[in-house]
Known about the structure:
The complex is a heterodimer of chains A (about 80) and B (about 280). Chain A has about 80 residues and is mainly α. Helices cover about 50% and strands about 10% of the residues of chain A.
Amino acid sequence: MTRLALSLALLLCAAGSLRAEDLAVERVLTSYHLMRPSEKDLAIYRLDWASSLDEAQRRAAREGRPICLVIIHSKYGDIASGHC
Amino acid sequence: MPFVVTSWFGHRNDEKIPSVVREVWARKFRPRRSQRGTRQSNVDFAVLDARGKLVHWFDAVGSTRYARPTDLVTNTLKQLRLGASRIRSLGGPIRPRTANLLKLPDAAPGKSGVRVFVRLDDRLMPAYRLPVVEFVDLSARDWLSLQWPQQPRTVDASVLKKWLAEVYPPGVMERVDRKTKKAFSISSISGSLSLKAAVPDADARYAVASGRVRLGDSGGDGFAFEGDLDLVLTYARDNPAVQTMRGVFRGTYPRRDRIRQTTRHIRLEAVFESRPR
């Protein structure tokens, strides 16, 4: 909500002195800021991901840390790629 | 969370299954007298100690039986804590992670590209509302079609396929090959964008590219969806090459319900940002 209010305020402040082309720039950038996921939405990227089980095991041994392994029983399910 | 997190996917009849996965599946699929009160999903969690030894595992759904999303979260956290406590009780080390920094998919050093955030706003499938993040490597050649417009011009959206092809929902089950189970990929992109210069500021020149685009997949049944694409590009004052790009896609995805034989039109959004700038 705060992001929405700030973005709208910025857009309104700028609108007074802008032409149509500039308004298009402001409109797209405002949408970009409003639609870009928040840090909360991206919390899964705060986890300490390793790209494979082998890498996770090497790092765990080196750093003295446990591993959380997500096992997906599926022919296609590479969650590291984003789309799974 | 102190864990190094990773994932593995495959089938029980695969040739190369990690020993720890074999161990989990041997326990999971062991015949039991009664399985009342639990549900099996196709996702399991395993907690390993620093030496890679299995200390705890659980089905992602298990006793929560798909009740509520919050129950799944609560149960997952509870089980992971249980796994960590077992490691401690066995005398294993658990060194905490130093910082939980947000680390998004990004360009490798010296490389550049586009980061794509995609979200399907399906109110019946809360998990799909979380963003998928992909990074696509691009070369200088990939940016040529968007270089500085001396005059307004039209850009064929298909030339942006490398990164627009990431605009599809996460894990939508019905758009997979029935035989291979592989998800169809975006194979055709059509539409045209109007690329126009905007008024520069003290630091850079700007241009806006906007238009309607249509994305079709490799299913071979004519399936496609559409949306509006808007991009803002910046350029140095003395160079036509794109410096940065920010943009959005607002579309509608026709999600087919095979049981009810209906189609729901769901908002599909994407956000684009060039990297490293």
